[in-house]
Structures are given as structure tokens and as C-alpha cells.
Write a structure and sequence with these properties.
Elements (H helix, E strand, L loop, with lengths): L5 E8 L6 H10 L14 E8 L2 E8 L12 H4 L4 E7 L3 H5 L1 H11 L5 E7 L11 H10 L3 E5 L7 H15 L1
Parallel strand pairs: 1-3, 1-4, 4-5, 5-6
Antiparallel strand pairs: 2-3
Bound molecules: guanosine-5'-diphosphate and magnesium ion (MG).
Family: Belongs to the small GTPase superfamily. Rab family.
Cofactor: Mg(2+)
Organism: Lingula anatina (Brachiopod)
């Protein structure tokens, strides 16, 4: 049996295709699946990280494709300790949809939830449509932390989840 000091639920949201499943795969399995935008077929994945010598178990929830049908339910947000709102820095519409996601967060999530805004696909710098400063500004306006990641090149992915673990243990 695995022992741990903390258990936190981390939930990913954002438009279909922005790379949520790839971020989870990259972090939990160290893989970048080429091609198919795979559905992982389970509700959540687990990874344990260490913060100051304490084991922190992260239960990471990925939408199993429901975002395509706009039917992400209240139960998905309930009891989330942290939310990761992802958009694709190379795809303007995914940024334009952020206010809708913020509305969902405000409606369904706990008011204490730790929220990160993540601009994914930072490896595709030539095709960037949203400047980092714009993302950062939006995050600040909505009291979110901001990071740009590449699931493909493993850029800032460990950092994202580790920062969340550190922050949540501070609050615990
Ligand atoms: P989801 O619908 O949000 O879960 O998105 P997926 O994780 O299924 O990824 C959608 C598509 O974007 C797939 O074709 C991935 O290969 C691609 N993708 C995901 N992350 C990255 C990234 O960091 N860089 C690049 N270049 N492509 C990515
Ligand atoms: Mg997915």
C-alpha cells in the first residue's frame, strides 16, 4: 500500500484539441502520443510527487471528450483542489472561449480553488496567434496563474504540476 501525506484533485478543462490529454500523458507517463487525440478511457490518472520530503498524491482528471459536447457537468468540478484551464497558443478560437470556461468555474467550482491558465503548444512558436503577454494579462485579470507549456517537448509540464502540488500543500 502506498502511503502519502496529501491527496489533491486536479481537473483539466478547455476546448477540445488544446492538448489536455497530452499534458496528462506527458506528466504521468512521460509520453507524447503522436497522431491520435487519444481519449485515455479512464476518469483520472494518479501521480505522486514529493514536496519538502512529503508525498503528495495528485489525482488528475481529464475530460473523456465531453468538452466536444459541452456537457461537462457540475460533478466534474466538484471537490477540485486545482483547475487547469488550457488553451492553444496557436489557435485564437481556443483563447476566445476562455470567458465561457471562466463562467463555468465561477458557477461550479469551489471559491477556494487554485486556478492555472495554461497556453499549450509553445513548441509551435512560428504559428503563435496569442502573444504570451495577452495570456498573462488575461490570467491576471481573473486571478489565475499563468504558464506556457509544450506537452510535445515536455516544456514546463512537470513544473506546472509541481507548482500546483507545492501551492496546495501550502494551503492545506
Ligand atoms: P485535448 O482534446 O485537449 O485532450 O487535446 P489532445 O491532448 O488530444 O491533443 C490534441 C492535438 O494536439 C493532438 O493532435 C496532439 O498531438 C496535439 N498536441 C497536444 N499537445 C501539443 C503540444 O504541446 N505541441 C504540439 N505541437 N501539439 C500538441
Ligand atoms: Mg482529451
Amino acid at each position: 500500500m502506498e502511503d502519502y501525506k496529501y491527496l489533491f484533485k486536479v481537473v483539466l478543462i478547455g476546448n477540445a484539441g488544446v492538448g489536455k490529454t497530452c499534458l496528462v500523458r506527458r506528466f504521468t507517463q512521460g509520453l507524447f502520443p503522436p497522431g491520435q487525440g487519444a481519449t485515455i478511457g479512464v476518469d483520472f490518472m494518479i501521480k505522486t510527487v514529493e514536496v519538502d520530503g512529503d508525498k503528495v498524491k495528485l489525482q488528475i482528471w481529464d475530460t473523456a471528450g465531453q468538452e466536444r459536447f459541452r456537457c461537462i457537468t457540475q460533478s466534474y468540478y466538484r471537490s477540485a483542489n486545482a483547475l487547469i484551464l488550457v488553451y492553444d497558443i496557436t489557435c485564437q478560437p481556443t483563447f476566445d472561449c476562455l470567458p465561457n470556461w471562466i463562467k463555468e468555474i465561477d458557477t461550479y467550482a469551489s471559491s477556494k480553488v487554485l486556478t492555472y491558465l495554461v497556453g499549450n503548444k509553445s513548441d509551435r512558436l512560428l504559428h503563435r496567434e496569442i502573444p504570451a503577454e495577452i495570456g498573462e494579462h488575461f490570467a491576471k485579470q481573473h486571478s489565475m496563474r499563468y504558464l506556457e507549456t509544450s506537452a510535445k517537448e515536455a516544456e514546463n509540464v512537470d513544473r506546472l504540476f509541481t507548482e500546483i502540488a507545492v501551492e496546495l500543500t501550502k494551503q492545506a
